[in-house]
């Protein structure tokens, strides 16, 4: 099996918590280089993980001949230019969510990677949860009848001040949006995977408890072309209830928390519970799939087109909000 050699661009919170270790621990993958503008923080990060090649300029990492693929974990505004650089250098690209600041950026990312014949994936790792696979199977078998509604509530205890690491999430020029873009995008991606295209989107977004440029709370209402009505609540500044429920004409499916291992299945008044734990490191299946996509010249399971569709829904929510 060909080893995929990775460069990591951005050594912030998500990289420290999951991404770097997922690359290191997934068979057939090697983390050979990392990039961060702050040299002291870069060295601290690389020392903790024994990463030899260290860059403060992303372009230099892109031009490293020993790097096959890059994981882009930078503020959203950097996703397009860094994807463009990577594709030009012949590197495969796995980019953090949301994919881009807007749909036009997603389109350009898809285009440049297609022309360069490199893989493009988006880090919606919940698509690899066994709970999601099981829900998909139950829906396809009509186990709960006709799905009528799907709902999710998600949040992060993000409470930041200017100068804090990650404060970029609260500024429109860096993030493109607030709670909806940052935590809501994951749930929208799952909705689209399970129920297909969305016909109508409405929202209410606002800053309620914080003094951010972006919304710290949003409620989104979606109507699918062929399927249920969906509601999504997403918030900055509170603990994550992580609720996910589908209501059908014969029963319900509940994963509360979605990041947990229990799926509650109610069919015709009878309840059962299945235990379906995710990977200990949520990002490992994502990394494994992307590496396999490179080796076998196929699209990754969560490709640029899927990432784009999530951005389409968010754009409609912002455009049709109050």
Automatic annotation (TrEMBL):
Ranges for domain Gfo/Idh/MocA-like oxidoreductase N-terminal: 4-124
InterPro entries linked to this entry: Gfo/Idh/MocA-like_OxRdtase_N, Gfo/Idh/MocA_Oxidoreductase, GFO_IDH_MocA-like_dom, NAD(P)-bd_dom_sf
Domain GFO/IDH/MocA-like oxidoreductase: 134-254
Top-level taxon: Bacteria
Residues annotated as signal peptide: none
Protein known as: Inositol 2-dehydrogenase/D-chiro-inositol 3-dehydrogenase
Lineage: Bacteria, Pseudomonadati, Planctomycetota, Planctomycetia, Pirellulales
């Amino acid at each position: 099996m060909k080893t995929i050699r990775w460069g990591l661009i951005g050594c912030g919170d998500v990289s420290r918590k999951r991404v770097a270790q997922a690359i290191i621990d997934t068979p057939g993958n090697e983390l050979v280089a990392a990039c961060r503008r702050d040299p002291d923080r870069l060295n601290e990060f690389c020392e903790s993980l024994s990463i030899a090649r260290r860059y403060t300029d992303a372009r230099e990492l892109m031009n490293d001949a020993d790097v096959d693929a890059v994981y882009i974990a930078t503020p959203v505004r950097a996703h397009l230019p860094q994807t463009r650089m990577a594709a030009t250098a012949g590197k495969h690209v796995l980019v953090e969510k949301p994919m881009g600041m807007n749909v036009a950026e997603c389109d350009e990312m898809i285009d440049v990677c297609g022309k360069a014949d490199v893989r493009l994936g988006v880090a919606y790792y919940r698509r690899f949860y066994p709970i999601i696979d099981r829900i998909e199977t139950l829906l396809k078998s009509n186990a709960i009848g006709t799905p009528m509604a799907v709902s999710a509530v998600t949040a992060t205890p993000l409470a930041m001040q200017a100068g804090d690491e990650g404060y970029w999430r609260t500024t429109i020029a860096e993030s493109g949006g607030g709670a909806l873009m940052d935590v809501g995008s994951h749930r929208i991606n799952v909705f689209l995977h399970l129920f297909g295209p969305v016909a109508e989107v409405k929202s209410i977004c606002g800053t309620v408890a914080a003094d951010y440029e972006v919304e710290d709370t949003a409620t989104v209402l979606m109507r699918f072309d062929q399927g249920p009505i969906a509601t999504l609540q997403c918030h900055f500044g509170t603990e994550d209830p992580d609720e996910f429920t589908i209501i059908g004409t014969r029963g319900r499916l509940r994963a509360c928390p979605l990041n947990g291992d229990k799926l509650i299945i109610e069919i015709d008044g009878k309840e059962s519970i299945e235990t379906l734990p995710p990977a200990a490191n949520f990002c490992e299946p994502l990394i494994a799939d992307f590496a396999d996509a490179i080796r076998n010249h196929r699209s990754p399971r969560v490709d640029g087109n899927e990432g784009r569709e999530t951005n389409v829904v968010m754009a409609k929510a912002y455009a049709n909000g109050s």
